[in-house]
Amino acid sequence: QVQLVESGGGLVQPGGSLRLSCAASGFTFRSYHMTWVRQAPGKGLEWVSDINSDGDSTNYADSVKGRFTVSRDNAKNTLYLQMNSLKPEDTAVYYCARPSMTSTGYDYWGQGTQVTVSS
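Request: output the structure for the sequence above.
Response:
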């Protein structure tokens, strides 16, 4: 029943911007921390950002700090990631994920959306 559906990815030039969305359903979205993770070609999952349930506390990986902004609209059950000043190194499949309550991993994540930063 839990479902996370990412959208908004695409091809963008270096320095450009993109806004990703994650539509959540099947659980009480407003009660959970949420996370963005990404996977570059041939690489493992990399944590990007997280946000608490109320949306008033956020954290970012050093690689994206100052460029990305995570937010959420609990009334719409939607998580967002605003990505500015994109770099080729940001090229990856981006996933929204729900952190596990009992581990450092995730118990649910979406299908991912491809972000390609290239000239």
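The chain has a mean pLDDT of 96.
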